[in-house]
Amino acid sequence: MLLTDQFKSFGSDGQPGTHFPPASPPAIFPSRASCADHAGFPGSYDDVDVTDCLFIFGHNVAATQTVLWSRMLDRMAGPNPPKCVVVDPRLSLTAEHATVHLRPRVGTNLALLNGMQRMLVVKGYVKMDYVEKNTIGFEDLKGHIMGYTPERVEEITGVKPMDLEAAVDVIGKAKTVLTTALQGVYQSNQAVASAVALNNIQLLT
């Protein structure tokens, strides 16, 4: 696992001659295909070319990460395009390309993510062999998230249960998922817990 300074040199600076995108906080979590042996590395532009699902949370890639967005558009326009889940209260240009667009109320990221984790568990999408081998605290996590029913999530976030389920089905059924997140997570309410929940979704599935 890279230390903070090493991570920053790859993630923040977008090193010339590498495939790592520039980002202020770590913008891209590793796709599931590459994180089984080493979690913590910044994602690669190359992941866009192979993932089955893009999970874009809290940023309008089309406006703020144009090189990455061009890569995503190329993939979406090609054969076997990935499905795309976008979480953004706004109807952004990025959201217009989503398979499923979730529009939570501002400041309710964590409740939405807890509801997504719960539904992944309830619907049987959790890869328990991986979780048991590579993680700790799964039972504690379950005890925390099981109260976030679709109805409670809707009450807090405004996201309808059918839309929540549609997003979870896309993520849960995908072989690989590439998650990107920026200020909509890191500079919002309960930012650290929300970032952890995003990582949890990668680990669970």
Defining traits:
globular, alpha/beta, 205 residues, 4 strands
Describe the structure.
The N terminus is likely disordered. Helix content is 47%, strand content 9%. Strands 3-2-1-4 form a four-stranded parallel beta sheet. The longest helix is centred in the middle third of the chain and has 14 residues. The relative contact order is 0.18. The chain has eleven helices and four strands; from the N terminus they run H-H-E-H-H-E-E-H-H-H-H-H-E-H-H. It is of the alpha/beta class. Helix 5 packs parallel to helix 11.
Quick summary of this structure?
With about 200 residues, the chain is an alpha/beta fold. The chain is about 45% helix and about 10% strand. Helix 5 packs across helix 9 and helix 5 packs parallel to helix 11 (about 190-205).
Number of helices: 11
Placed side by side, the strands forming the largest sheet appear as 3-2-1-4
C-alpha end-to-end distance: 20 Å
Look at the helices and sheets and give the structural class.
alpha/beta
Q: Give the biggest beta sheet.
A: 4 strands, parallel
Q: What's the SSE pattern?
A: HHEHHEEHHHHHEHH
Which regions contain 5 or more consecutive residues with pLDDT less than 50?
A: 1-18, 22-40
Spatial extent as radius of gyration: 16 Å
Mean pLDDT: 84
| Beta-strand content estimate | 5-15%
Number of strands: 4
Helix content: 40-55%
Q: Report the principal-axis shape.
A: globular
Task: Indicate the topology.
Layout: H1 4-11, H2 45-48, E1 53-57, H3 61-64, H4 66-77, E2 83-87, E3 100-102, H5 109-122, H6 128-134, H7 138-145, H8 150-157, H9 161-173, E4 177-181, H10 183-186, H11 191-204
Parallel strand pairs: 1-2, 1-4, 2-3
Helix pairs in contact: 5-8, 5-9, 5-11
